[in-house]
Amino acid sequence: MTETILIAISLICFVASLIPFVPCPSGSVRAFDFGRLQVLALSLAALLASLVGEIWLWDGWTAAGVASIAMAAAAAAIQFSHILPFTPIWPVETARFEGDETTVPTLSLLACNVKQGNRDYQRVIDLINQTNPDIAVFMETDRRWVDALRPALSDYLHIIEQPQENSYGMIFATRFAMRDAKVQFLLNEEVPSITGVVQLSPGRDVRIVVIHPEPPIPTRDTLGRDAEILVAARIAREETLPILITGDLNDVAWSKTTRRFQRLSGLLDPRQGRGFFNSFHAEYPVVRWPLDHLFHSGDFQLLDIDRKPFVGSDHFPMYYRFALAGNGASETPPPPSRDDVEDADEAISIEKNRDRRPAGTDWED
After folding, report:
1. CA-wise closest residue to 83 among 50, 46, 112, 43
2. In the list 71, 278, 289, 361, which could disulfide-bond 10, CB 3.0-4.6 Å?
3. Could you tell me the pTM of the whole model?
């Protein structure tokens, strides 16, 4: 009976590891990108238990036992190959700044998906006061969130408020002088993004882009999410200024879409070689993965990256500090392939030419 259970677990892990290779944008397929850490843990447990059983507990090696070991080992190898770049044994992609902070422009940024239905405003207000970021970004902000956070942001030089009741509202606040600030609807008239150029010091301007694409759900495709992420990649590729792109991308760091985003944009991921920084789900430790991101051009070096404590949301806030010191790339993403460009063009074209409500607009009703 135990051997049968282990075979079933190994088979499930093996199949779950193969599904993401299917070239299909269905949410039911793309969902298998998310739980790689969980499948890895389960497959390693099945592998260890099967080895112990075959070697010491059962009557010699059996075909079923060998099959269980092979499937569990294959599943573990597939999953580990995807998450390996986000472990400390991988080279960091973003160099750490080792110089004197007083000699270079720096910026700190707090990004927080507050969860629209969360009404624990004080936790977020306390976080703003504790971190005192130069730039603060909030997602899923309805009118009540905008009103609640406005006093805590009163000393910021520029604030862009885009309250919405569909879980796609945004707030952008900065202490820096800012120009070219605007709310954009890149592909869907209900899904905003915010962009602006902040001035860290005279002559040292930085483009900031905040996006919050729609979440993947099993009953529809992920082209809305993927296309918006890839539009942001185009923006980065065409930008001549140093640039940061941040937000809840509703995609994991190791997914095909996020890796393609990096190749197309040329931007760096400060998590590589440092850790997962799993920001979702804040209330359930067993099902966590990195959904909240910040990517940057090679003009920056890392001072700090930190996942902040629970604020009542299903996301943990993320906090970053960078030095605009240049030569920030320890490793660089590979250049985009022809397939990358063609697939991005196709996804963006499809999404531009259809009219549908984004996913998740009724989750907070």
Report:
1. 43
2. 71
3. 0.95
